[in-house]
Design goal:
The chain is mainly beta and 329 residues long. The protein has a 16-stranded mixed β-sheet that branches. A hairpin with a 5-residue loop joins strand 3 and strand 4. It is elongated, with a radius of gyration of 26 Å.
């Protein structure tokens, strides 16, 4: 993209004098192969642009691409209805790429994990070109994670996020909301620069807006050798719950495609005055048959108090048999 935009900037700068005398009309669609090649080099992925192309150099270089395919249809990739990007002309003329704004409308991202737990990358994937993105937005996006090892699929929709990136390798900042099968969640995330080992520091806050669940991750996200994993702290809680419906948990966890293992696990059920407290370890297997193994010891446990609090907070029961009987025949 850098070479393409510098060429365009140079050509149109030379033609600015003539542009004042006559309209400058360029068929940007004839540059389709150049845009695909330049964008592919920047992102490190195969790119196909099927829709119309709009572009301009002044007052700032900007481009609008429609119906864009990133990657391929049999592995990890994405379809984007519309991609809008604007870059700094001053930085461009110095040979740098600084995107002042990037917007992806209805991006549909597909992440495929093969049977060995590695992300299946498209053919032709290579190291991307470094660039700065001052601000970006994802509008009405979706994410589908397909795990061939377990034949399991997880999907998120309604993804609306805003953020910034100092480079394509991070650090990243994201904020917005996503829709999961269990409800709508607010999201704030900070991902540090991805190092040579494929890992970066992750801080993720997820707060249920239509679901009573919230959690906080503080650790390291790794894609070493194309294998996703997380190692660090986990805090989770059920908001507004009373008695047996209220709980919070803290653990040191390691998550991989095959399993999530929790060490130094602490669970408290009930309010802060007399909670039932457990400690121990747990492992959730994510194979074709999900399996939970836990070894917990209770430090305090008063089921009568928890049950009484749950009953007191429960809505009044409706007795279908009470009230007026059926009308006489």
């Amino acid at each position: 993209m850098q070479a393409l935009l510098i060429s365009l900037a140079t050509a149109i700068t030379l033609a600015i004098g003539g542009a004042f005398a006559a309209p400058l009309v360029i068929d940007w669609n004839s540059w389709r192969a150049s845009f695909e090649s330049a964008l592919g080099r920047t992102l490190g992925l195969p790119v196909v642009i099927r829709g119309p192309i709009e572009a301009a150099i002044l007052p700032a270089p900007r481009v609008v691409l429609r119906d864009v395919s990133l990657g391929d249809v049999v592995s990890t990739g994405a379809l984007v209805d519309e991609l809008r990007a604007e870059v700094s002309l001053g930085a461009l003329l110095k040979g740098e790429i600084q995107a002042t704004g990037v917007t992806l409308k209805h991006p549909q991202v597909r992440l495929l994990i093969d049977s060995s737990g590695h992300v299946a990358l498209p053919v032709g994937t290579r190291r991307p070109t470094d660039m700065t993105i001052a601000s970006f937005a994802l509008e009405n996006g979706s994410l589908d994670v397909l795990d061939r090892g377990t034949d399991r699929a997880v999907g998120l929709s309604g993804i609306d996020l805003n953020g910034e990136a100092r480079s394509l390798f991070g650090p990243y900042r994201l904020e917005g909301e996503v829709k999961a099968p269990s409800g709508i969640y607010g999201v704030r995330a900070m991902l540090g620069e991805i190092g040579a080992d494929g890992a970066g520091k992750l801080r993720l806050y997820v707060d249920g807006r239509t679901a009573p669940i919230a959690f906080d991750l503080d650790g390291s996200l790794s894609m070493a050798d194309g294998r996703p994993s997380y190692a660090g702290k986990l805090l989770a809680r059920r908001k507004g719950g009373v008695g047996l419906a209220g709980w919070h948990a803290a653990a040191t966890v390691r998550a991989e495609p095959e399993a999530v293992a929790a060490d130094t696990l602490e669970i408290a059920i009930g309010d802060d005055t007399e909670p039932a407290q457990f400690s121990g370890t747990a492992r959730l297997g994510l194979g074709r048959a999900t399996a939970l193994q836990a070894d917990l010891a209770a430090r305090t446990l008063d089921l009568d108090t928890l049950y009484a609090a749950s009953e007191a907070a429960a809505p009044p029961r409706t007795d279908a048999a009470s009230g007026a009987g059926a009308p006489a025949a």
